[in-house]
Amino acid sequence: MRIERRAAPSRRMQVLSPLLALVATGLTGAAIFAGLGQPPAAVMYAFFIAPVRDLYGISELLLKATPLLLCAVGLSLCFRARVWNIGAEGQFILGALGGGVVALACNEFSAGFGWALLGASVAGMLAGTAWAGIVALLRDRFDCSEILTSIMLNYIALQLLLWAVHGPLKDPAGFNFPESALLVEELLLPTLHPDYRVHIGLPIALLAAAGLWLLMARSLLGFQVRVFGESARTAGYAGFSSRVLLWFVLAACGALAGLAGAFEVLGPVGQVTPHLSAGYGFSAIIVVFLGRNHPVGIVLAGLLFALTFIGGENLQIEFGLPRSITQMFQGMLLFYLLAADFLINHRLRLPGAAPALAGER
Amino acid sequence: MDAELFATLAFSTLRAGIPLLYCALGVLLAERSGMLNLGQEGMMLMGAVVGFIAASESQSPALGVLAAAGTGLACGALFALLTLLLQTNQVATGLAMTIFGTGLSAFLGEDYVGSSIDGIAPLAVPLLADIPLFGQALFAQDWLLYLAWLLALASYWLLHRSRAGLIITAVGEDPAVAHRLGLPVRRVRALMACAGGLMAGLGGAYLSLAYTPLWTEGMTTGRGWIALALVVLAGWRTGLVLVAAHVFGMAGILNLLLQGTGIGLPGQMLAMAPYLLCIAALVLLSRQRDFGRYQSPPGLGQNFSPED
């Protein structure tokens, strides 16, 4: 078998390679479980099917997909502009803190909860934006690698959260647990249906994805981001300001990730705790890659990743397997995806087959 | 501060820098050839967990170190395979390595959380170890620490003094030109990526077998990322990497160092120190135009394929 470079990237493989990666991940997973002495079929069922057997399961899937989608939409914008922001996790945490602080301050109110909820969401967005703004400032003014600074800010954000729940935000009536007081029910986001926990964050996340599509496909700013991402030099010749784009993509990502954090506090968690994020900010990076940096792809990949989170929880309950399996599978999936992308620009040919003609797709 | 306390602090400060030193040397070796592997955190964790498991099953820390080195090497080889043969994006592949390594290490180490082993014991050099103030710090450490310094020396020689170092640098500066000169670009890069992985594995092993002989999930707490930053800060120079690793090691144990001074900061604030220091150093560095910034290997992170 020979490897041959394609004359042009294959569109078909662009769509097929995520599916190929998925199948490869599934097969590897089954092999690992078989090696561990677990029945692979049953484990796979418990991971992928059982969590979404009923409406409640699907609503939980959508609940988990909400923060993932918000972070992924923001990151997609950054990656399109080749701004390697790895800091969605920290921006998420700051958003949770900002939203949490405002919401807790309003916890004793007797009225005006709607405004308090709005205020807390906006505070979350602002806190996330500010945190991402540090990355933009460091890159803009001091030419610091955004990869390194955004990662460092993730660790600082985590310590800030830990400090807050051990100190100023700690619930005085909370038996010394490092957690804030529970928010009153009026301060929680309206749910889409009384029986389920999925809240209005989901339509907002979907709107954000739609907004991303509109921005990239229909606006001058989006066009600039695209040009900038493909060739910074071309963007320079066209007179696009790389500084404006840098600030714009980071601020937008910070706002969305911050909103995701605030929504976790104001939604399913209902208080500020040390373990607010299950690594959404990191997983969202893979969601963007898996979704081919396209809004529709990101929504599909976000749903799949939400499934890996609840599937992992289900495996823990049913088989006593550690939850870290989720992260392992996510990493493996990205490996396979990157490897499968080789087929976009290359093809495998059996010996004896005629060589490709120039221009053949 | 009395002499005994000083001696103890000097002892722990040097130890705290070693995981960073191992990992940063690995980053340096790989990056000099143009391989940007952001998977350090994952490779370190894999080394730490496999080293710990091997040591606790075999009761031999030395075997643990070997297993950790082998695991790191395998991770580096995987990175090389993906980026060199399958032409994957180096940034994305490194991120995948970090996420995968974090998950897999937590998975493998699940049953070993909380179990303890006999770590690598310190070796005291007779007489020299009794020198006041610095004797304990310099002459009563474990062999894995001395190995780190030896490898720093070896890296210095390899990169800055040997013919092989010239080849590595040429490959890192412009792989296409190096290829036209007849240098085996992909082989050099694969080798350096493997060496980088091996060093990250050793860094992990130092954490779980010597520094704190135990395993906890995510025990590297960002050291892999700091190591990546260290190399930037050191301007890709081995001597400065050695110094910087120990400075950051000190920042990592600030809480220990400040204990006696009565400065009452919450522990979480002190825990931010290495990350804040890292950002501050990157900012300061940008002010020094001729230092570091332009020493970055021009071909860093760029893929190369002979068919292009």
Automatic annotation (TrEMBL), chain A:
Pfam families: BPD_transp_2
Keyword Acyltransferase: no
Membrane topology annotation: Multi-pass membrane protein
Signal peptide segment: none
Organism domain of life: Bacteria
Keywords linked to the UniProt accession: Cell membrane, Membrane, Transmembrane, Transmembrane helix
Subcellular compartments: Cell inner membrane
Regions that span the bilayer: 61-79, 91-110, 116-138, 147-165, 200-223, 244-266, 272-291, 296-312, 324-344
Molecular function terms, GO-annotated: transmembrane transporter activity
Entry GO terms, CC: plasma membrane
Protein name per its UniProtKB record: ABC transporter permease
TrEMBL record, chain B:
Residues spanning the membrane: 6-29, 62-84, 91-109, 143-159, 224-257, 269-286
Primary localization: membrane
Any one annotated GO CC term: plasma membrane
Membrane topology category: Multi-pass membrane protein
Location(s), subcellular: Cell inner membrane
Residues annotated as signal peptide: none
Keyword Iron-sulfur on entry: no
A Pfam family the protein falls into: BPD_transp_2
Annotated InterPro entries: ABC_transp_permease
Protein name: ABC transporter permease
Domain of life: Bacteria
Annotated keywords: Cell membrane, Membrane, Transmembrane, Transmembrane helix
Keyword Ribosomal protein among UniProt keywords: no
